[in-house]
Amino acid sequence: MSELVSIRGLTVGFGGSLALRGIDLDIGPGEALGLVGESGCGKSVTWLAALGLLPARARVSGSVRLGGAEILGAAPAVLDRVRGGRVAMIFQDPASSLNPVHRIGRQIAEALGLHQGLRGAAARKEARRLLDQVGIPDAGRRLDAYPHELSGGQNQRVMIAMALAGRPELLVADEPTTALDVTIQAQILELLGALRRDLGMALVLISHDLGVVADTCERVAVMYAGRIVEAAATARLFAAPAHPYTQGLLGALPPVDGPRRPLAAIPGGVPEPWAMPPGCAFAPRCPQRLPACTEGLPAAVALGPQHSAACLRAARELVPA
Amino acid sequence: MLRFLGFRLLRAAVTIVLVVSFAFLVLRLSGDPAQIIMGADAPPEAVAAFRQAWGLEEPLYVQYLRYFGAILRGDLGRSMRDGREAITLVAERIPATLALTVPALLIKLCIGIPAGITAALHRNSLIDRAVMVLAVAGFTVPSFVLGLLLVLVFAVQLGWLPSGGQDSWRHAILPIVTMGVGGAAVLARFTRSAMLEVLGQPYIRTASAKGVPWRAVVWGHALPNAAIPTVTIIGFMVGSLIAGAVVVESVFSWPGVGRLLVVAVANRDLAVVQCILLLVAATMVTANLVVDLLYGALDPRLRNAVRGA
């Protein structure tokens, strides 16, 4: 068992509808995985569910193993050690993700106290080092600042420093740059990539933007309507997308060079969780739909090393009739 | 900071002047104190002499200026009933009122805040529903109805407690409970909604995500934020320590400031009514000022605004 995190059959239901419909996903130690899909497809829910951070009304089932040990439904004391200590998470809106009434030094020191047993001056010294590491200038004085006194980009750096405080094996970055200016986005992505290389930490980068994950991640998983529809090494996914949804996403990216062309939007919209079509959720919008697509959920099929897609046509093309 | 304080003090002073002026005008336009105090059958000469003695025959603006001049010298006037200084009459009553309102405030805080927090933490549970039903009942029932109900049950039916008067601590129990229940209900609802609002914030999820145990998330991260809106309503309760007992003091015939006010209004005892209203305005305004300063202490985002203002 070499995987760091191994998710099997993870489903999440809210009320009568399913937000996640069976997620299978592996992350190796030190690996950088991009998790891509539209808003509401379940990217964030996957990780909130894995760490037990969803509200109590969410019904979660399946399996999430961390280093071989099941953590789904684990005791609160176990989860508190995992969260921040082995798997850290940072969020979309850094300004509201930090507690407005506590100084940032205190918020970082809290994580250091929980996971490294550091208190007082030792915690402060380490917090200062972490702020330095994430590139916050004048770290010593910034420790006493409140979140509202920092910019969005700096707050996200503070979030990253706080996440690093527990020396996690995996950092889940949930749309870490969506709320930031474009230039700051690039800096934060660069920082995440550098930290991963320096610290040997695995990274899951959740984004609705294929471009964001392209440079940072080795492997990409594409989600649609609560399922992973395709997963492949980044280069392979961009070169030979197998699922029509992935093809559609790539077709909707503006080309960097060459003549201008109208962007190809995918017609239709994502089905609502309470009105999922039978069969493949993408079938109603799919230009390559087969009659069988509306009959049953397509299973993920291996199309090559590290490449799989949950698509009947992709599977059919694999085996010449 | 000093500029902020100066600005707030100025605003407080303006508020007090407006309240006092309003009271002055309404009292003088709503009935002739001379006629009321001397009685309907009093000879016209006696009424005229009374007016003369109290300066009531002068034009309104002269009375008004004279009144403010006196206030600035610290003279709040004398009762038209017995000629004693209004401030003395009122001051005598304050301990009796505080004997009701301070324990009632403690009840409000000690029941309302924990009930609100518990309800929020167990949202939609049986506890939450029970707290909310009691809270709605608690503040929709007017205090005079609740007071009479309590008298009916505990004084008339069970005979455990006296129905009115001020002879022993047992007399204070029913009025204190009457006042405490309504306030606790308001505070419970307020605390619950403040807490729910905070618990839904992303920084609460962040705290959980970094491994903070839930109890510490609630105490260390949620409560300090939920305290900010709750302080407003507590400030209002502290501000009404003096005047908040008018109805309850009347129901339980408790000789406090509230009952003095009711009697003084009925008698058109101008100086006494004005003195009480001035006191009420001053406590309310002071409580507000303290709340504003507390905001700065609780919320660093406002601290800068306070410093900059």
TrEMBL record, chain A:
InterPro entries: AAA+_ATPase, ABC_Ni/Peptide_Import, ABC_transporter-like_ATP-bd, Oligopep_ABC_C, P-loop_NTPase. It is a peripheral membrane protein. Signal peptide: none annotated. Belongs to the ABC transporter superfamily. It is found in: Cell inner membrane. Residues 5-250 form the ABC transporter domain. PROSITE patterns: ABC_TRANSPORTER_2 (PS50893). This is ABC transporter ATP-binding protein. It comes from the Bacteria. Its main location: membrane. GO terms for molecular function: ATP binding. The keyword DNA damage does not apply. Keywords: ATP-binding, Cell membrane, Membrane, Nucleotide-binding, Transport.
UniProtKB/TrEMBL annotation, chain B:
It is a multi-pass membrane protein. Pfam families: BPD_transp_1 (PF00528), BPD_transp_1_N (PF19300). It comes from the Bacteria. The chain crosses the membrane at residues 12-31, 98-121, 133-160, 172-190, 271-295. Its main location: membrane. Gene3D superfamilies: MetI-like (1.10.3720.10). This is ABC transporter permease. The keyword Transport applies. Belongs to the binding-protein-dependent transport system permease family. It comes from Paeniroseomonas aquatica. InterPro entries: BPD_transp_1_N, MetI-like, MetI-like_sf. The keyword Membrane applies. It is found in: Cell membrane. Keywords: Cell membrane, Membrane, Transmembrane, Transmembrane helix, Transport. PANTHER family: DIPEPTIDE TRANSPORT SYSTEM PERMEASE PROTEIN DPPB-RELATED. Residues 94-295 form the ABC transmembrane type-1 domain.
